[in-house]
Amino acid sequence: MFSVARQSVLRQARTQLRLSQPTALPQYSALARLLSTLAVLEQREGKLNASSLAAVAAGQKLGGSVTAFVAGSGVKTVADEAAKVKGIEKIIYVENGAYDKGLPENFAPLLVENIKKGGFTHILAGHSAFGKNLMPRVAALLDCQQISDITAIESEDTFVRPIYAGNAILTVQSSDSTKVITVRGTAFPAPGTEGGSTEVVEGVDPKAESPTEWVSEDLAKSDRPDLGSADKVVSGGRGLKSKEEFDRLMPALADALGAAIGASRAAVDSGFADNSLQVGQTGKNVAPQLYLCAGISGAIQHLAGMKDSKVIAAINKDPDAPIFQVADVGLVGDLFEKVPELTEKLKSQ
Amino acid sequence: MSGLRILVPVKRVIDYAVKPRVNRAQTAVETANVKHSMNPFDELSIEEAVRLRERKVPVEEIVAFSAGPPKAQDILRTAMAMGADRGIHVQIDEKEGKGELEPLGVAKLLKRVVEKEKSNLVILGKQSIDDDAGQTGQMLAALLNWSQATQASKVQVEGDSVIVTREVDGGVETLKAKLPMIITTDLRLNEPRYASLPNIMKAKKKPLDKKTLKDFEGDFSARLKTVKVTEPPPRKGGIKVEDVDGMISKLKELGAL
């Protein structure tokens, strides 16, 4: 009698234990052992792009091993730098200047060779200009349906991503044997870049020719924090009326807060701000601690890029502007008075 | 060079100004009785193709293409009213609810169309505003093994080489490639024209080829299964403050300063 009771208690405890496991991995323990992720890192002129470590962070959430990949000229130093990142099992690097500009025509075959050689089950990269340009090409070469801009991982084959400018959240299950995925950086904070020690190995280089030639680039120079990863963002819209007013009011406010500067599409289209500053469905996604915007009405395309911000503050003269429906703190007033006043008061603190 | 044979794929999507609603069964976004339009980025693609012709670049033909429900013909007519010479519609049966093609399926289908039409330039939008995937152009470039220039903000054609300025994080970069190639359009490329009434009337007479998936060889089946579609978590309603001091103290209270 006693032993029967004990057995049933044991069984119950075991079942509960199983249920309380945080991930679905134990059910797929055989799969989990085989699960291996390749995280594609970005580099520019021999420097690791830290935001691309989001791919590593997502890989760690998947479970299984995480291998990082980097290619370009002088990337051994990048590989050594990335080797300090915790949670990477191995780093594959390919030293060849042909990959410096991330042209997908030769970068995609390069990745495919290394994916096939390593037998990876998941290929992850950041949903940046680089990742967006490259990964679908890789996916098609592998005959896989890519999953773009994921914000969460449910299990090794099930992922969550926003659709319709973030107005709906889609959970999808992939039947592809290799999962090619881009990850939203703000949803997967980069792991620490200290304390790890990782094996660094050379990858295979198929040396595919690129029919496309890189000619030049023109990048906006800025001493301010990077818009995509800044803790604070100040953002201006059409309400600023001109480029002169944008340049007069927004940088001063940004400097008072130590914030990055963003802009709405209306401000960019009107020429007030550079298009690399655009926040929204077709621009950058940001999720800072503080998103402070002035003269932005809050169209759904803009909200798509900033509504995951921790605190949203808005200054707008129209009390019915949709931005006030998402703002934690709203101030109805003329931004030409309120922004300078706010800048002064923040500075004097 | 004999001239450009441009293919412009367009997609019928829920109009960008409509706020989409998730259906009660949480299987999809409600599309019945909702205004649909051409994907905004695809309007830019058509516009750019027409402008190339207007800039005296030798353009032999501009073909608009759409795969979708019968109503996708409306946006093909719009494309023709904007200046496309003819249209191809691959009708996708919506009845099963699983009828929609994924980007990989569309890319495979487009590869067949490109081969059949002998296109040497495909101009696509950088993403559709419903699925927000941003994959089809790059996938098509991979399948054809052509050059690709995504997120284009400027396109110049000189003989058989094409110079494209593309938007990247932090600025722009310029690429040069030889035809054939794939271009995807970004918002700043151009300002699409409105179709004039006479052109809308003329577009009704332009040829529109009707096909089904059975007319094409290949496996276009879906790889992804929708588990569920949900509304995003709503943000808690905030408060309005009277003045700048109120804003600063509230931000401090919320720990944002």
Please give a structural write-up.
Chain A: It holds the Pfam family ETF_alpha. The complex is a heterodimer of chains A (349) and B (257). Chain A folds into two domains: 31-202, 3-Layer(aba) Sandwich (Rossmann fold); 232-348, TPP-binding domain (Rossmann fold), CATH 3.40.50.1220. Chain A has a seven-stranded parallel sheet with strand order 7-11-6-1-4-5-12, sandwiched between helices. In chain A, strands 15-14-16-17-18 form a five-stranded parallel sheet. Chain A has a three-stranded antiparallel sheet with strand order 8-9-10. Chain A is elongated. In chain A, helix 5 (104-118) packs across helix 6 (129-141). Chain A is of the alpha/beta class and 349 residues long. In chain A, 32% of the residues lie in helices and 26% in strands. The longest helix of chain A has 18 residues, at 2-19. Chain B has 257 residues and is α/β, with parallel strands linked by helices. Chain B has one domain (4-254): Rossmann fold, CATH 3.40.50. Chain B has helices at residues 40-54, 72-82, 103-117, 136-144, 197-203, 244-253, and strands at 4-9, 12-14, 36-38, 59-68, 86-91, 121-125, 147-158, 161-168, 171-178, 181-185, 208-212, 224-230, 239-241. Classes of the chains: A alpha/beta (349), B alpha/beta (257). Strand 13 (213-219) of chain A pairs antiparallel with strand 9 (171-178) of chain B.
Named CATH architecture of the largest domain in chain A: 3-Layer(aba) Sandwich
Q: Nearest-angstrom radius of gyration of chain B? A: 21 Å
Mean pLDDT of chain B: 94
The fraction of residues assigned to DSSP E strands of chain A is 25-35%
> Which architecture of chain B per CATH?
3-Layer(aba) Sandwich
Mean pLDDT across residues of chain A: 90
The low-confidence runs of chain A, each spanning 5 or more residues with pLDDT under 50, are: 13-29
Separation of termini of chain B?
62 Å
Cofactor (chain A): FAD
GO molecular function (chain A): electron transfer activity; flavin adenine dinucleotide binding
GO biological process, one term (chain A): fatty acid beta-oxidation using acyl-CoA dehydrogenase
Subcellular location (chain A): Mitochondrion matrix
